[in-house]
Every structure is written in C-alpha cells, then in structure tokens.
Amino acid sequence: MATENYERIKGKTEHHSDVSLWFALLFLLGFGLVMIYSASSYTAFSDYGDQMYYLKRQAVAVGLGLIAMLVVSRIPYHFWERFSVLGVLASAVLICLVKTPLGVESHGARRWIKTGIPGFNLQPAEVTKLAIILFLAVLICKMGSAIRTWKGLGIMIAPPFLLFLMIWKITNNMSSALIVMAIAAIMVFVASPDYKKFVLLAIFAIAAAIGLVLLIKYTDILGSFRAGRIRVWLDPESDPDDKGFQTLQALYAIGSGGIRGKGLGQSMQKLSFLPESQNDMIFSIICEELGLLGAASIMLMFTILIWRMMIIANNATDLFGGMLVSGVIAHIAVQAILNVAVVTNTIPNTGISLPFISYGGSSVIFLLIEMGLVFSVARGIEYRGN
Amino acid sequence: MQKQKPRKFSKTSQKKVLVLFFLVLAAFIFLFARIVWLIQNNETEYQKQVLSQRSYDSRTLPARRGDIVDSKGVKLATCEKVYNLVVDASVMTTKEGKYVEPTLTALDQCFPQLDTNEIRSFVKQNPGNQWHVVLKKLTFDEISEFKALQSENKEIKGIWFEEEFRRIYPGGSLAADVIGFTRTDNHGLYGLEEYYNKELNGVDGRTYGYLDDDLNLQKTVKPAVDGYTIHSTLDVNVQSIVEKYLKKFNEEHKDHYHQGNGAENLGCIVMEVNTGNILAMASYPTFDLNNTKDLSALLGSVQVEQVDKENGYFEIKKTGKYINQELLDEMTDEEILTNLNYLWKNYCITSSYEPGSTFKPFTVAAALETDSISPDSYYECLGSWQVGPHNIHCHNRYGDGVISLKSAVAQSCNVAMMKIATTMGAEKFSKFQQAFNFGLKTNIDLAGEARTADFLRSADEMDPSDLATYSFGQNFNVTMIQLATGFCSLINGGYYYEPHMVSKITNTSGVTVKSIEPRVLKQTISASTSALIREYCQAVVTEGTGKAARPAGYMIGGKTGTAQTYPRDGNDFVVSFIGFAPVDDPQILVYVVVDRVNEGKQDNVGYAREIVRNIFTEVLPYENIFMTEELSAKEQKELEDRKLENTLQYGKAMENPESTETPQETEQEKDPVWKSFPIDPATGYRKDPNTGELLDPDTGDPINSTMKVIDF
Predict the structure, then answer these.
(1) Which residue of B has its CA nearest to A342?
(2) DSSP letters along A36-95, please?
(3) Does residue B363 form part of some domain?
(4) In this complex, do B31 and A341 lie within 8 Å of one another by their Cβ atoms?
(5) Which of A258, A268, A318 is nearest residue B54 as measured by Cβ atoms?
(6) pLDDT in tens, B442-455
(7) Concatenated DSSP letters for A298-341?
(8) Chain A residue numbers touching B47 (CB-CB < 8 A)
(9) Nearest CB partner across the interface for B35, out of A262, A268, A287
(10) With helix as H, strand as E and coil as C, how does B433-451 read?
(11) Strands, E, within B273-350: which ranges?
C-alpha cells in the first residue's frame, strides 16, 4: 500500500520533491525556532542582556544545517560508503578528545569539544549517531546472509556497543549512548528477516528493566546516582527541590497548560522556574503555552516525517539506501519518543533533546545532514523512475 | 546501473519498517494519552502550583514623609532621596565571572570607603545571592560617577541602587528638642515628629500582580500618598536668636566651677501672649538631629543612670558626675543610651522644677481675684515668719519693712506672699493653682509632656507650711510650659490659651487639611486683676529685682525666680526670669530657666535675666514692635553693635541722640541692711550683731546656715 502510494505521487511530477516531508521538516524547524525564542527570551535577557541570544544562535545552526542538507541531498549517497569505517574511527577519536584540553565543560558535564568557531562547540555523540548509521548500513550490505546467524548479530552489534561504552564512560552521557545503541538495534531489526530473536530480546530487556526498578524500589543495594534518579521517577515529589525539581516543574507546566494552553509566549514556568526550558524541556513549554493541540501537532508532524521517510526507505533502490533511511528514522523516532517520555515522567529523567526543536547546534546540524541523506536516497528513486 | 547487482531492500525489511512506523505511532498515541491523563488529573492542582511559585512582584512604594516648616515656610525637617548600593552576585557571576573584576574596579574607584576584597569573597561564596546591601544612604551626587561609568562600560554588571527616603534636618541642631527625629522605619521620636507622626507619615503604595478571571497576571500600581506638611508656629529667626544666647551663656560659664557645661540645663520659651503660639523653644545641652547618636553632644552633661525599682518601674537618677571623654569611654552601650535618651528630651516640657518667685504673681492674682486682699494692702516683713513649727525666712533676712502689695512683688517678699496665701486659705489657693493648670498638662502638641499632678498637694492635703511655701513657688514642681502659659493668661486679660506648636497642616499640593486656630480654654482672672499684675511686673523691672532685664527701647514687665533644689542644704539653685513686652499691651513672653549654673554661687538671678534681656533686644524689633522708650547713648551704641537691621526706625533716638540716660544707670541701688554690719576681723566676713552669724560678702546670707529657703 505504502509503495503504491509513493509511486502514484512520483508519477505526477517530473522533479519530484516530497512536499509532505518538506512541510513536516520545515514546520518542525520553524516551530522549534519560535518555541526557542518563547522559552528562552526571559532567561536570555537576564543572563546575556539579549532576548534573542538563543534564537540567533539556533537560527545560524539551522541555516548551516539546511545548507549542509541541500549539499548532501545532491550527492549520490553511495559516495559516503567509503567513509563508513573512517566515520566510526573519527567519532571514537572525537569522544576521546573530550578528555583533552580541547574539551569544553558545561552544565557540570564534559561533553563538547571546541571547533574553533567561536560560540559553537561540537558534541561528539551527535557525530557518532550519524557515523553509526552509515557504518551499519554499509556493514549490513556486506554481511549478506550471515545476518541471520547469532554470530552475524554479534558482529553487527559489537562496534556500536563499543561506542556505546565510550560515550557512556568517557563523556558520561548515558542517554546519548543508549540512543546510539537503540539506532543500531533498530537497524539490525530492520535488516534481519526474523522476529523471534528480537521479540525475545525485547522481552528480556523489558524484564531486566522492570527487575532493576523493583530492585531499586524495594532494596537499597544500588545507592548510586542513577538509582536516585529511578526513585525520583517513581515519586518526583519525594525530592521536589533537588532531583525531582526539573521533572516536577515540567509536569506543572504540562498540567497547568491544560487543553487550550496559556497562549504563545504566556508560559510562566519558563520564567526561570523550569531549567533547560529551551532545551530538553522545551516540549513541556509547548504544552504549557499551546496546550494539548500544540503537543498533538508536534507529534503529528513527527508521525508525518517518519511516515514519509518510511515510504522513501521502502522505495529505496537498494539495501544501502533503505538501511540509511531506516537508521535516520530510528534516530529521530527514538529521540522524539524518549524526549516526550522524559518530559511526561513516563521514564526516568535523562537528557535527551527533541529533534529539530530543542536548542542545540550540533544536534540540529547533524540531524539535517541525515535528512540530506534521506533526500539523496529519495532522489535515487526518482532518477530510476525516469 | 551499478557495477555489482545491488542488493534490494527486501520485502521483509519493508514490512519491518512498517512495523517500526506503527510502533512509533503506538508510542506517540501512548504518550499523547499520558499527556491527556496528566492534564485531566492534575490541571487545577498544577495551575495552583505554578501560580504559587510566582512572586507577583509585590513591592512597597515608599511614601515620602511630610516636611516640617516654620511659620515663614523655612524647612525644619524634610526628606531627600537616597540610594542603597546593592550587589547582585547572581548577575555579576554570569559569563564565567567576566563581570566581577571590571565591576569591582569601578566600585573601588567611585566608593573608596568600600572594601572590594570583602565583596569579591562574598560574591565567590554566594554566587546565587541577588540582594546584598553594602552601602546605605548614598546621595545622588555620590552615585552619579558610578552611574556614568556603568553606562559607558558594558562589563559593569550586578550593581543596583535601591531608592529610599532619608530624613534630613537642614537646621542641624536648630530646635532639635522641638522637632524630634525619626527612626529608620519613619517612626517619629520626640517632639513634633512623634506627636504628628501619623500626619507626617503618608500611606505607602504598592505594586502588585493579581490574576484575572482568565488566570492572566495583571499588574497594578497603587501609588503612595505622601505625608502632610506640618506648619509650625516656630520662627527660625527667633529660635536662632534664642539658641545663640543659650550657647553663648554656655560658653561663658562652662568649666568654671567644675568640668562641664555652663549649666546643667538651660531652657527658654518664647511665646505669643495673645495666641499661645510658641515662637521659639530651646534648651541646652542639645544635639544634632542629623547625627543623633553623636556622643560628643554628651560631653559636659551631668551623667544619669537608670535605677530599676522592685515594682518594675525605673528611675533616672543623676550620678553627680559630669561626662568627659574618660567617663564616656568607660560607659557601656546601655548607659550611653540612657544618657542619650536624657539628652533627647525636651527640657521645656519634660523636666519639672520648683518655680520659685516667678510664681508670686499667681499668688497675688488669685488673692486679688478672690477679694482676699485689696491692691492697697500693706505688709510688714521682718525677715522671717513663723508658720507652725517652721520659721521661714524671707530672701532678705533683715526684713523689707512695711511694703505695699506692689513692692512685695517688685522686691519679691516671701513673708508678704505667705501672709497673702494664709489670708486666702488653702481652698481658694488650690483652686487657682488648678485654674492656671498647675498639676495638669497643658496639652501642648509635643510628645513627652511631663505629668506633674504628683508634685502638687491638693487643698485637703496641704498643711499651713505647704501653703506658706507654695505661695512663693517652693515645694511643688512645674514645667516651663505650664508656667509660661499660665503667665500669659496673667497678663493678657485672663485668657488661658492652649499652647501650641503647629498652626496648620497642608497636603503635598499645598491645600490646608487642618487649620489650628488659637484656642482659649478658660478665663483665669479678670481683666482688671490682669492690669494690676502687669503694673506689678513692670515695677519688678523699674524698681525691683529685675532692673537689669529691660532691653533698649522697650518697657517690659517681668518676674525673677530663684529656687533652691533638693537637698536644701546644698548650694544648687534654679534661677529664672520671665518677661513680657510691651508692658501695657503684652505681645511676646520670654521665659528663661538656668538650672544649676556652673559657678560657685548659683543663686544669682542675673544669669537668667541677662539672657532674657538679650533675647528681647533682638526679638522685639524683629517682631515689628515699636520702641516706646528713649534710647541712651549707650543703648544706641549697643543696638548698632548688634547690627540689628530694623531697630532704629522705631526708635525716636535718631531724632534725639542726646537723650537722657536710663534710670538703671542714674539710680544707684540702695545698699541692703547687712552691708552696714561690721566686718569680723577674724574671718574677714561681715558679722550679724544680733545672731553672730558670718555673712557672705556677696549675698549677705549667713555662711554655714543649715535650713534656708532663699528666694528673691
């Protein structure tokens, strides 16, 4: 059904460009800028004396990202095949650079490195996400039928697992590490023909997670930082001034916005109560200002975006293109879902940004480069059609 | 198309992507449901939470305290805007602290009194602090340099100036006792500031936010209502003249007999006889209203201490020491505060003392009014009078002989007064004491008027010796304001005006809110009695004890007073003079009290008399009162020396510069009886041939006498 749908549209225009995909993407980017301005103008003015401080920086990043996206979309995606190993090695080096004097510390974590461009620092985790998509797409193409075996699975999972460990342990950023791992898992799932393994793995993972939570809830074995996070997740009001503060404030924002919201720009929580209101917590400000409708439209746009990418993947001329798009779908979907889940306290609080919307230069630039790959794959389909 | 056969994106993979899409869709639907659930279950509660976290920027807008002005509109107390320097560490430490050093450098440059190291360490230790006041009450001039720097240099951040009003007193110590001062919270202490505190304090305004029906935050400003302006009856010029002479007196007498001020207390009231308006009220020692805690003001004063009593009350007692720097250094903070409180009191209304002979006109007026005596009465004075067990002396121990009623006042004869009071009886005497408000408050509009009811015995408590001593103003206490106010009614035809300090109250736009007109409370004596009292008081100045009090160009009436303080065997006296001018139509009354002058011999009424004369000489021309008496050459010169601006236009002396000399210079004072006594060769003192007592060469009083009540 999905395949036919795409071909019907394709047949209508000679220089096809996927209007729905473009619309969803530009909507998210534009909406993101508006919300960043709304959420950050107060703190930007009080901290930097410029209401548009965050907006300006994000707009520059979005502009750079769009240019990069257009350039990448014009390059046949097979061009990037040869960089797959290099990309993974480069990310590993970048992750290590965080520990050198090139590393930049912010918000109590050392996760960025200097780029030489004033004001813009690079987060190696974002590079890694792109690199792992490329690497796995190439690897899956080369694996052939070996993909069906447990050994093949192990070969595919080993490199991302190494990167997962590096990001987690070196940059102390478990959420990015998990995303890298999730992207890899989803790509392997898409490439692999059977379901049984994955259902078993998923059941095992869920059971392990529930077991861990119960362990933390009823015993005192894991008295660490993350155990504390789990406790706060179970009952945010147990520690409203410290660990539960951000979660609670996000919940207050969502709850107080109600169905209709307070109106654009009318958020009270952004007035320095909700930390990172322009960043990881921007979704709660959207809910507060625009209500259920705002939340629904964001989710709808992500759904459209993923739906259109799914059609591109399914019509990709070859496995490599399809795997590339699948990887991008995995990346965007995982981050969007986890971000909303964190903001609504559905899962324990961890720093995950909302794709295209949250403030963060590295994130939006690399996401747009990934979108460039998707458009490049889409162009391939078109090319063949003609 | 490609070199090797491209591997297709298999059908299973396509299905898996579809599965992935539906999983994502399911996740979104689940999360959306979660949001709906959150809103439905918590909307109201979370709205409250959000609102309760908001500070509505509720802020007090300080009202400006009203001014106090004198009768001519000169500001005695006013407010100026001052600024508190606030360090906002939270702003200063943004951008990795790049603002800290430039800001501290600028602070150091503009406010050298600041310790920037202290601020640096404070900012470092409390980076979240937003409100740390480091300097208070800076004037606009003091902060303008920093403000200029701040607008030039964008790196100076985290310094605010908080506005507030500061009470200032342009006159410094001028009329300090009368005006009083304010605490930092705008609460008046002492004087007009306390009495009219409510009128002076406006109503503070407020800016605040509230939530309207749509839960939108609305901001509202309720402006401050500034305090009213108090128009005092004081005249700064008269007040300055008075204070000048009190100060001069102090300079002349300080450190004479012992270390310390010229007198323990000096008090002066100048009031309008026919309105009860106070033109000037001053005392010495005084203090600076702009620096009330300046301890140097205490130097020279007698030290007081607080003695706690069993019933929870306490008493302020004099220690007998005079405060000098060493004593000051030894005193605890508490002791210093006790002494400051003593200093801040208004002597003219809070301290009571025995009035002495200035009370005699009251006794005479009461007796005349009750027809107990006639103006033609004569009294024989033999120097003392036996009342019950007591033999009470006259100031003139050898008797004034047979004297008329007028001379009894003029010569201040105690024996005559005792006889008059005894004739009148305690009942009538006491009734008139009440009529003149002795023992009652005058209700002057100043804070802290003393209660004197306990210092006075009523008719049924009085024994004959009480009545006898009351008649010449001993054994009971009055305040200066009681005596001055009562005296006005004695000489103005019997109208007792309520004494007051304030004539009207206006708001900030100058509209009169309250007008305080002179208020006659009662008729104390008849006009004819009053005329007689004026005549007797003139005699005091023309032929009696107050001769030296007459100012150049005017005829005044007056009465001297000397009262010995407790203990009676000491040598401490309160001397006073009350005078009024012009004598036939009194306008201005001046009352001066000198409490324990710093001289070996204190019982010389001349101390008070001279101050009154000086004040009259300057105040009467200033008040546009015509001169009636011719000026002698000496007086002419005196007036010229004083450089009084509008004196001469009233004097006829200009046309007749060769005028005759004043009576006070032509008439030689008659030698008192004791001056004819022989000198005792052994001691060098004159000796009373009848008693063998040695006499003081200045006063003629016996030396070493144990019981004496001396009065002029």
Answers:
(1) B31
(2) HHHHHHHHHHHHHS-TTHHHHHHHHHHHHHHHHHHHHHHS-GGGGGGGHHHHHHHHHHHH
(3) no
(4) yes
(5) A268
(6) 999 998 898 888 88
(7) HHHHHHHHHHHHHHHHHT-SSHHHHHHHHHHHHHHHHHHHHHHH
(8) 255-256, 258
(9) A287
(10) HHHCCCCCCCCCCCECCCC
(11) 278-284, 302-308, 314-322
* Residue B36: C-alpha distances to residues A339, B29, B44 (Å): 17, 10, 14
- Kindly provide the ipTM of the predicted complex, given to two decimals: 0.91
CB B240 within 8 A of CB B461: no
B21 has a chain A CB within 8 A of its CB: yes
Residue B90 covered by a domain: yes
Instruction: Tell me which DSSP letter residue A163 carries.
Output: H
| Per-residue confidence band for B704, with pLDDT thresholds at 50, 70 and 90 | low
Q: Answer whether A283 touches B (CB < 8 Å).
A: no
A193 vs B94: CB contact, 8 Å cut-off? no
Chain B contact set for A193 (CB, 8 A): 10, 12-13
Assess if residue B225 is contained within a domain: yes
Maximum CA extent, chain B: 158
Rounded distance between C-alpha atoms, residue B179 and residue B188, angstroms = 9
DSSP state of A103: E
Token pair in block for residue A191: 């490439």
From the list A292, A319, A329, the residue facing B8 with the nearest CB is A319
Please tell me the distance from the alpha carbon of residue B585 to that of residue A343, in angstroms, as a whole number: 93
From B8, B34, B50, residue closest to A256, measured CB to CB: B50
Which of A4, A252, A260, A302 to probe by mutation at the B interface, max B CB count within 10 Å?
A252
| Of residues B18, B27, B38, nearest to A337 (C-beta) | B27
Distance of CA B360 to the CA centre of its chain: 28
B20 touches chain A (CB under 8 A): yes
Domain count, chain B: 1
pTM comes to 0.60
For an interface test with B, the pick among A45, A148, A299, A312 (most B C-beta atoms closer than 10 Å) comes out as A299
What end-to-end distance do the CA atoms of chain A give, in Å? 22
- What is the distance between the alpha carbons of residues B15 and B11, in angstroms, rounded to a whole number? 6
Distances (CA, A) of A215 to A139, A239, A345, B41: 38, 20, 19, 29
Measured between beta carbons, the chain A residues lying within 8 angstroms of B12 are: 193
pLDDT at B125: 82
Cβ <8 Å between A296 and B32: yes
Average pLDDT of chain A is 84
Q: Confirm whether B357 is domain-assigned.
A: no
Whichever domain contains B154, its CATH number is 3.90.1310.10
**CB proximity B33 to A under 8 Å:** no
Does the beta carbon of B94 lie under 8 angstroms from any beta carbon of chain A? yes
* Interface check A207 vs B, CB under 8 A: no
Least confident of A95-109, A274-288, B252-266, B486-500: A95-109
Q: Does A273 touch chain B if contact means CB atoms closer than 8 Å?
A: yes
Q: What three-state secondary structure class fits B133? A: strand
Query: Is residue B415 exposed (0-12), middle (13-18) or buried (19+ Cβ within 10 Å)?
Result: buried
CA atoms of B232 and B238, how far apart (whole Å): 13
* Measured distance CA(A65)–CA(B495) in Å, rounded: 98
Q: Which residues of B touch A299 (CB under 8 A)?
A: 28, 31-32
Q: In this structure, what is the dihedral angle of CA atoms B554, B557, B452, B385, given to the nearest 10 degrees?
A: 150
Give, in degrees to the nearest 5, the angle at Cα A347 between A345 and A351.
85
Asked if B46 and A271 come within 8 Å (Cβ–Cβ), the reply is: no
Domain that holds residue B198: 59-232
CB contact under 8 A, B35 and A322: no
Lowest-confidence segment of A101-115, A317-331, B21-35, B504-518 by average pLDDT: A101-115
Long-range contacts of B516-521 (CB under 8 A, 24+ apart): B516/B445, B518/B274, B518/B275, B518/B276, B518/B277, B519/B276, B520/B495, B520/B496, B521/B496, B521/B497
